[in-house]
Amino acid sequence: MKKESLFESAMDSMEDISLNIPLQQISNDYYYSNIAAKEYEEELRAALPPNLHLILSRLADKNNEREAASMAVSYRQGFSDSIRFIMQALSWEPSRR
Predict the structure, then answer these.
(1) What would the pLDDT profile of 8-67 be if each residue is shown by its tens digit?
(2) Residue 34 phi, psi (nearest 5)
(3) Under 8 Å between Cβ of 53 and 45
(4) CA-CA distance, 65 to 69, in Å (whole number)?
């Protein structure tokens, strides 16, 4: 069994919490973009021959995976930056000149 650092455990916990947020209820941009994306997918599905429907689904799945990976990297970087900032702020000492 792999031992996780405190940082990794905190990140995993925060990601679990963030995955349960209903974005369509929080962001108008997300809500309307999601509707538009579904409409475009329906149009493409109707225009494509049935043998390409599976490929369209795979493309959408891979795009979602790519976006999730990108969000995870951004989230981890932001969390890491905030922890560094807090640590620097706590260790700062005024100096006399």
Answers:
(1) 666 565 555 556 678 778 889 989 998 999 999 999 999 999 999 999 999 989 998 998
(2) -65, -45
(3) yes
(4) 6
Give residue limits of the domains in the chain. 24-91
pTM of the model: 0.58
CA atoms within 13 A on the CB side of 33: 8
**Which band of pLDDT confidence, cut at 50, 70 and 90, is reported for residue 72?**
confident
Spatial contact of 80 and 20, defined as CB atoms under 8 Å apart: no
Q: How far is CA 46 from CA 40, 52, 90, 92, in A?
A: 10, 11, 59, 62
